[in-house]
């Protein structure tokens, strides 16, 4: 791919996308409790495996792979941005379908969402600079890292805190509202992506061969890194499934928000990030359905033995 990719972009879409991401985070947070964060202490090995793969292995491997294979700089930077994002909220549903440890999945989503306020802008800047093919493009963007931190706080951190407060104040209502709210947010998000693709249909078809297999390979790598790290840490099967899906399901919605806000002309990055938002649902649900049919032969160890 050579030259810039002209994406048709309506600035009003940014407001909608911000609200969607905040709504999705709010829905996830309704059933979160302070105890979910204590899993970092009670099950440090499990949480470490997931966060290490999420925030170190995946961004580093993405940086190396995009450099080694000489991938187009704009597409490479899009892949690095996705790799720098935290786990996606729908990994919780997929972990439940896969008969994995939902508590681990929810806790990792919460912890990674908070950690992302610092680590997402840091990893994006670091690995975008370390890749010599993307360095010039990253420098030309000249985004202030503090602006990205503030954005992530607003669309992830603030809804998470508000959602937990509402869930604690109205636990019965939160339990009833959370499932349909999450599904509603997913459907609206997919509709948003579908409209964006339809507005750029010709471009999508012309460039399909440049990003489809990159996203598929990148997502496969993320899932494999999560599974490998879980096995290396000798986690049981339910925990391994949770960690694998958490690393493989990225919050690409956050990536789109960052792009629309700071890099609205980075069409190649948007193609990568938007298609990630669709593909990881396909791969995650497929893997979850396969795992749901495979019996679990080991059981979770008590929290204190993790």
Class based on secondary structure composition and strand pairing: mainly alpha
**Rg estimate, integer Å:** 18 Å
pLDDT below 50 for ≥5 consecutive residues: which ranges? 302-306
Shape: globular
N-to-C order of helices and strands = HHHHHHHHHHHHHH
Sheet with the most strands?
Answer: none
Q: Helical residue percent?
A: over 70%
Beta-strand percent range? under 5%
User: What is the arithmetic mean of pLDDT?
Assistant: 82
Cα distance spanning the termini: 47 Å
Give a brief outline of the structure.
The protein has 14 helices and no strands. The protein is an all-alpha fold.
Written description of the protein model:
By secondary structure, the chain is mostly helical. The protein is built from 14 helices and no strands. The longest helix has 32 residues. It is globular and about 45 Å long. The N and C termini lie far apart (47 Å).
Features:
14 helices, single chain, disordered C terminus, mainly alpha, 306 residues
Describe the secondary structure blueprint for this structure:
Layout: H1 12-29, H2 34-37, H3 39-42, H4 44-68, H5 73-84, H6 91-97, H7 102-130, H8 135-141, H9 145-169, H10 171-199, H11 201-232, H12 237-248, H13 252-262, H14 267-292
Helix pairs in contact: 1-9, 1-10, 1-13, 4-5, 4-7, 4-11, 4-12, 5-7, 5-14, 6-7, 6-12, 6-14, 7-8, 7-9, 7-12, 9-10, 11-12, 11-14, 13-14
